[in-house]
Specification:
Helix content is 39%, strand content 12%. Strand 9, helix 8 (264-272) and strand 10 form a beta-alpha-beta unit. The chain is α/β, with parallel strands linked by helices. The protein has ten helices and ten strands. The two termini are 38 Å apart. It has a domain at 83-309: TIM Barrel (Alpha-Beta Barrel).
Length: 330
């Protein structure tokens, strides 16, 4: 009998010794007598069994994909009298070109596109305009009052957008501080009351104040849009506790996070907190690759929403075994 060199054929010495202790027959020569990692053996029926197993797993994956797609298809974002399949709303500024902007929109899966009324050419339609690049069969235009610092300015901008045929919807912004771009909540409340009486569908950009959110709803707001962080900061959700409180207390209208999302994980966090949707612009438009980031935000928003619906496990201080000891053979 030829001697076996422990550690040869890919078998550690300790394994060889342990194998002999269990009655493992010693190597007697021949390639198949002692299988190693470089030459795995096949047994009768292995290929057929493997093929069946692969098909079984493929079927399970297809079923899971169908369930996920079905869940997301049935889960609509409802604002006023409209429903949207996507919970991601996107902006239309800061892109390198209109072509890049449209490509990013496609990858984002968004159905709502915000347009700053004061920055759109509404007077001379012979000149190129942002509106020329919006396919209204695919995207719902949401005019916004960006750049307005008083309630009167915001109301005039909203009326101008409606008269120009954009929409009677408005993402209402009344800025109170030029450096932080925080909202002027008193002016915002006043503008919301005025526009709601004029049959506008008002979506006000506000802070994470529960009391103000309630007053905006009472004034006729169709949604509440608290900031997650300062506009364009990309810092992610900085006010997790307040967003949780808003989600728990605000049920009458959608809660849409507006501003602060910088990357895909921020979008997922916002949706896992229970937000009904997210509006973002800079996080996509100013990314190194806006088109790729738009796709990432699309998946992140969907993943966060699905995780929220699924329900996460409770957080615990100590470990819980993944494989419980009950039923273990001893």
């Amino acid at each position: 009998m030829r001697a076996v060199n422990p550690g040869s054929a890919g078998v550690p010495p300790a394994s060889v010794a342990a194998g002999h202790g269990r009655g493992l027959r010693p190597h007697t020569g021949g390639r198949d007598a002692w299988p190693d990692a470089r030459a795995p053996r096949s047994f009768p029926g292995d290929q057929q069994a493997l093929s069946l197993e692969c098909r079984r797993h493929a079927g399970q994956m297809n079923l899971m994909s169908s369930i996920i797609e079905g869940t997301m298809t049935d889960d609509k974002l409802k604002i006023a009298n409209r429903e949207f399949s996507s919970r991601l709303l996107v902006g239309s500024s800061k892109y390198a070109s209109y072509q890049q902007m449209v490509q990013a929109w496609e990858k984002s899966g968004a159905e709502i596109v915000t347009v700053a009324v004061r920055r759109v050419n509404l007077s001379d339609r012979n000149k190129e305009s942002l509106l020329d690049w919006i396919d209204t069969k695919k995207y719902f235009i949401l005019p916004n009052t960006a750049g307005c610092y008083t309630a009167d300015e915001a109301v005039r901008a909203a009326r101008l957008g409606r008269e120009a045929g954009l929409s009677n919807w408005v993402k209402l912004e009344v800025i109170g501080d030029e450096k932080t771009l925080f909202p002027d909540n008193l002016g915002l409340l006043q503008a919301t009351e005025t526009l709601a009486k004029e049959d506008f569908v008002v979506l006000p950009y506000t802070n994470d104040d529960l009391v103000m959110a309630r007053r905006l709803i009472e004034a006729g707001a169709a949604a509440v849009m608290p900031l997650g962080a300062p506009i364009g900061s990309g810092m992610g959700i900085q006010n997790v506790a307040n967003i949780r409180i808003l989600r728990e207390m605000i049920r009458e209208v959608p809660l849409i996070i507006d501003a602060g999302v910088g990357t895909a994980s921020d979008a997922t966090v916002a949706m896992e907190l229970g937000a009904d949707g997210i509006l973002m612009n800079t996080g996509i438009a100013q990314a190194q690759d806006p088109v790729a980031m738009a796709e990432a935000m699309n998946h992140a928003t969907r993943a966060g929403r699905l995780a929220f619906l699924a329900g996460r496990i409770p957080k615990k201080l100590y470990a819980t075994a993944s494989s419980p000891l009950e039923g273990v053979v001893r």
